[in-house]
Amino acid sequence: MPGPSAFDEMTNADGSVREPYRVLEQWLKEQKPQALGLMAADAEGIFRRLGITFAVYGSNEGTEKLIPFDIIPRIISAIEWRKLSKGIEQRVRALNAFLHDIYHRQEILKAGRVPEKLILNNSAFCPEMMGLDPARGIYSHIIGVDLVRVSPDEWYVLEDNLRTPSGVSYMLEDREAMLQLAPDLFQRTKVAPVETYPENLRRTLESVAPRGASGSPTLAVLTPGIYNSAYFEHSFLADQMGAELCEGQDLFVENGKVYMRTTTGPRRVDVIYRRIDDDYLDPLTFKPDSMLGVPGLFDAYRAGNVTLVNAPGTGIADDKAVYTYVPEIIEFYLGEKALLSNVPTYNCTKPDERAYVLEHIAELVVKEVHGSGGYGMLVGPTSTREQHELFRNKIIERPDNYIVQPTLALSTCPTYVDAGIAPRHVDLRPYVLVGDQIRITPGGLTRVALKEGSLVVNSSQGGGTKDTWVLED
User: Fold this and answer.
1) Across the chain, what does the average pLDDT equal?
2) How far apart are CA 162 and CA 436, in angstroms?
3) What sections of 208-342 are H helices per DSSP?
4) What is the Cα–Cα distance from 172 to 217, expressed in whole angstroms?
5) I need a labelling partner for 34 at 20 to 30 A (CA). Which of 213, 303, 338, 424 fits?
6) What is the distance between the alpha carbons of residues 417 and 36, in angstroms, rounded to a whole number?
7) For residue 111, how many other CB atoms are within 10 A of its CB?
8) What is the mean pLDDT of residues 366-390?
């Protein structure tokens, strides 16, 4: 069970139900004993039919797994969402300003507000981007901001995802499934739509097309191919917004422009939503042995003949060590205090903070600076002494490679598990689109830790997803 300090989003400490959940609570009371079990089975059938799976690397269970879906939605009130949206928008504005600065005048480094070596010696920094002006000055067009809640009024940003944030297809399919499974529940409440995301994504991509694009810009989604863990999402989004799904071999560069091979001859491509990492984009500029990218792509981008979404080099802004400076970054570029707080974070390169971490590692969460998906991390309270010792040695060896945070009491939501309803810890990834305007989809992807007491929500570590409802006024 969650610790006594975990805030339950549905139920107050005195047992009363919080306002946003009252309709849901009434609906749950009306359900016959077997109804939720049948709903859960139907949900699994829907997702199996759609083929929504993800790859589990290093697993003995085969490579593909179905992501568990929880049938009880997570609910956020309109007033809570407005507050969150403002904080998210402030954050993405500041991070895009930061990216423009570090690839141009580097004022924030000169001012000493962010350490120069943290940026310039970082593997996520892309020197090839220096002096390059992307369309509309936007570097990160598609952003996922991971949030956790610890009380009715307190949310923390866990991390920013500015490279290639994934999971949006699950958000859309979770809503589609809930509309099929519980239409009567939707009739009782006003839930903000999420299904406009593909259309908004298309508008965002079209709005950052190069100046030379004539008529309706040609959009392509660049995927590493069917063996990638997020391939379902790549094909789903291409299909939903009417873009072409391409692998590197489907594209070529001629006279500084990018073309797609089609049955009727070459077709010019204006905007590429790339779902492959920087290093593999172009073997002539980055990794020479990359088979996934397009030779000459970066030169075409540099010449302003194609837009890459997101821009190469955006990873420096979601680096976990840079994360600790985001409140400073917001203040530097916007002259405002951060509306959303960071999780307090220890910097292991500072001797006093490192000493504290090494002594209290059993109470803390340790994350690799470039780790993701729940890999390469230690959750102190649920780990063994051997694991504590292993991570102590890793921190001593490479203090710059880890950030350390207190174990937060993540909020819980009612979740259908083991034929009953029980609280489980959740986080939230809202999706932000930045182009001619900033568009934030109401809600986002709620990930839920299905194991009792677990704080790790990643699907690769046994987590599931929920539909996220933002109520309209």
Assistant:
1) 92
2) 18
3) 231-241, 297-302, 320-323, 326-334
4) 25
5) 424
6) 10
7) 10
8) 82
- Residue 447, strand partner residues: 427, 465
Average pLDDT over residues 453-468: 83
Please report which helix (H) or strand (E) contains residue 103, including its range: none
Could you give the C-alpha distances from 49 to 45, 244, 472, in angstroms and in order? Answer: 6, 23, 31
Cβ neighbours of 113 (radius 10 Å): 13
Residue among 423, 439, 421 nearest 431 (CA): 439
Which burial class, exposed, middle or buried, applies to 255 when counting CB atoms under 10 A from its CB (0-12, 13-18, 19+)?
exposed
Average pLDDT estimate for 370-396:
84
**170-224: pLDDT as tens digits:** 999 999 999 999 999 999 999 999 999 999 999 999 999 998 777 899 999 999 9
* Bond from prior residue into 342 cis (ω within 30 degrees of 0): no
Instruction: State yes or no: pLDDT of 247 exceeds 70.
Output: yes
As a whole number, mean pLDDT of residues 337-366 equals: 93
| Beta strand ranges found along 162-299 (DSSP E) | 219-222, 244-246, 251-254, 257-260, 267-268, 271-274
- Cβ-count burial of 190 within 10 angstroms (0-12 exposed, 13-18 middle, 19+ buried)? exposed
Is the CB of residue 85 less than 8 Å from the CB of residue 95?
no
Q: Which amino acid is at 172?
A: L
54 band by pLDDT with thresholds 50, 70 and 90: low
- At 238, the amino acid letter reads A
pLDDT at 297 over 80: yes
Which pair of structure tokens corresponds to residue 82? Answer: 């407005």
Angle at 82 between CA 78 and CA 87, to 5 degrees: 150
* C-alpha closest to that of 282 among 269, 270, 293: 293
Strand partners, 70: 466
Closest CA to 158 of 465, 464, 408: 408
Contact 90, 326 (CB under 8 A): no
Q: Which residues contact 150 (CB under 8 A, 6 or more apart)?
A: 7, 156, 408, 409, 410, 411
CA distances for 112 relative to 116, 195, 328, 344, angstroms: 8, 43, 11, 21
CB atoms within 10 A of CB 48: 11
Strand partners, 471: 191
> What's the burial of 465, exposed, middle or buried (CB within 10 Å: 0-12/13-18/19+)?
buried
Tell me the mean pLDDT in the region 360-364: 93
